[in-house]
Amino acid sequence: MGVSKRAPATDNVSDEGSKKNMKDDAVHLRRRIGLLPSISFIIGTVVGSGIFIAPKGVLMNSGSVGLSLLVWALCGVLSTFGALCYAELGTTFTKSGGHYTYLLETLGPLPAFLRLWTEFIFIRPAVASYVSLAFGRYVVEPFFLPCAAPTALVKIVSVLGVTFVVAVNCWSVTLAARTQISLTFVKMFALILIIIPGIMALANGKTENFQNAFESDSLSLTKLPLAFYSGLYAYGGWFYLNFITEEVINPNRTIPLAIIFSMVTVTVCYVLVNVAYYTMMTADELLISDAVAVTFAGRALQGIAPAIPILVALSCLGALNGGFFGSPRMLFVGAREGHFPVIFSMIHIRRQTPLPAVLFLYPLVIVMLVRGEIFQLINFASFSRWLFIAMATLGMIIHRYRFPEHLRPFKVPLAVAVVFTIVCFFIVGLSLYSDPWNTGGSCALTLSGIPVYYLTVKKSYIPKRWEKSFNYFSQQMQILLEVAQQEVQTY
Hints:
By secondary structure, this protein is mainly α. The chain has a single domain (31-485), classed as Amino acid/polyamine transporter I. Helices cover 74% and strands 1% of the residues. It has 19 helices and two strands. Helix 2 (35-46) packs across helix 8 and helix 13 crosses helix 14 (355-371). The chain starts with a helix and ends in a 6-residue tail after the last strand.
């Protein structure tokens, strides 16, 4: 009897061990992102080129120093409200994919597909393009001062930055996470280096640039949404942690904590950085500068001014890395749900990275980078991005009403969700009037996804010969890239 009791126990242990080994060896995305990497991921993606480029766009469209500072503070509050809504969504729906997943779960497959469509047709390429252009400008411009840097050289350096980030994200999830943590510390150091001398000068009585701060001859209600777009662009990135929910350790605790800490930190830093800028520069001087942080450093940090462009360039690289880490997970989940070709839901069998999804972005970003101009890109991408964010939080409110018993480990006050949703829809609607060319083009491209959905996803009208050719091509790409579909359910 004693032997017969011990034998099953031994078998049980060996079975559990073999199952654990099989799971360890299986192709899937591991949970490797803890609290510090999560905070670094959010701050590192938010603090990129925006705080060094967007002050010009905010001031240009708000018309005065005082109103521009108010826009920066309100953008921080609005982004924090949105981030809290996404903390609820991220703990309610445990799949990766961010906006796409939440729209799919609350409003249905068509809005989700349109979000996926716009993300990879123009939002992500546009966002990555203007971050990489800022990286290229800050690397190149110091060598040509006081003259303007050659545009072609800026774009070549920008392409090199994108290539580096793509290589890191294809190589290893761990390497990409460590790169993000390192670059986050660098960019926080850069912000502190700007804040301290600015606040010291302000404390010593250098307040002339803040006199009559709200007086303006160029204030226009129709331009204000574009000021908010520039400010919200600088805060953009608070939702990227939701793209990788399946890779976050203990997401119910980690996601809300990381979001709240990160957004409070970023909002305070951004307002203080802008105060520092205006302490050392007049509004007119800020408007004629293409590299605000470099101009600031030349006045306030003369001894270490050459270091500022390097720190800013590394900050842009961190934002670029965060975007390339997060966005491919949306494509990965969309392909897993059948909304994109299945090749994009595959993972490298040894490196455990979503290789096809990362590589898909690369040529799209390069094309837009070569053709794009920074402020046009901001307005072009922002319309659809904020439209779908508003729809996702509207979906959250509807889901609460329809499924009140659904488990929600983190719950944001309803007033916060309602205010955020209304403000987003208002900004999106008014921007169509303020900049009809760019926002209208963005709207048209968004709607172009509707026939694509009905022709290829809802009911396939693709000729059999084309489908067969595409399947053959996909198989060859799978062999070439050494990728396979996920073998373990991670949600």
